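Give me the fold.
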Amino acid sequence: MNVTEHKQLVQDYIEAYNRFDVDGMVRHLHEDVVFRNISGGEVNLTTTGKESFRQQAEQATQYFSQREQRVTTWQVANNQVEVLIDYVAVAAVNLPIGLKAGDTLELKGKSVFKFADGQIVSIDDIS
């Protein structure tokens, strides 16, 4: 795969995420995909494998009534795509991080996607 194809896989993933489309999110994931959420330098969530990712993604759809990842910068290398993201979401339920239902969460972060066998093999979401 070339860098354009890698970028397209990432774009498809983000668009599916914004639509709450879990099937679309996992469509281009490798069976052994590793997902890590890193906040404040600490890994607070890791999933290993496509099915584990799917379960977490389905659960996460319940937390927000609206959510959008908007890419502000693309950095594309051989086997990696790094995107800087503006993230906005509206809580659907009261969350343990202090958000109440209806509150808006705004973050800036980055996501790093790596590839193997024409699929996404790892995703690090960093905020």
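The helical segments are 3-18, 22-26, 50-60.
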